[in-house]
Write a structure and sequence with these properties.
mainly alpha, 5 helices, about 90% helix
Amino acid sequence: MSKVMTKAEKLADAIVESDEFVAMVNAEEKIDSDQDASELVDQIEDLQKKIDKNKESEKLKKKMASLQKTMWQNEKIKSFMQKQQKFNKLMSKVHKRINQKLSPKASENNPK
């Protein structure tokens, strides 16, 4: 198991060093340093919690739609979200590759 954990740590290191991760972290830091952007993100997170508790509230949903529109107009938040999407695509590819490697082994060990 230690060999697997060592490889997992190397993969984590490679992910942290990837252009996608670095760009996402830098974009997040820009949001954190911008009071307007940071407050908008906080408002959205708070509102999402309220919506989770009261899924039927149309008033909350309309307010969320309005906040999301405002959010997409904020260049720092928009940039972060685009970079986060690229990072998520990378992670999806990593997950897919791992599954591809595991699938032949699984079928060899579990004959039908």
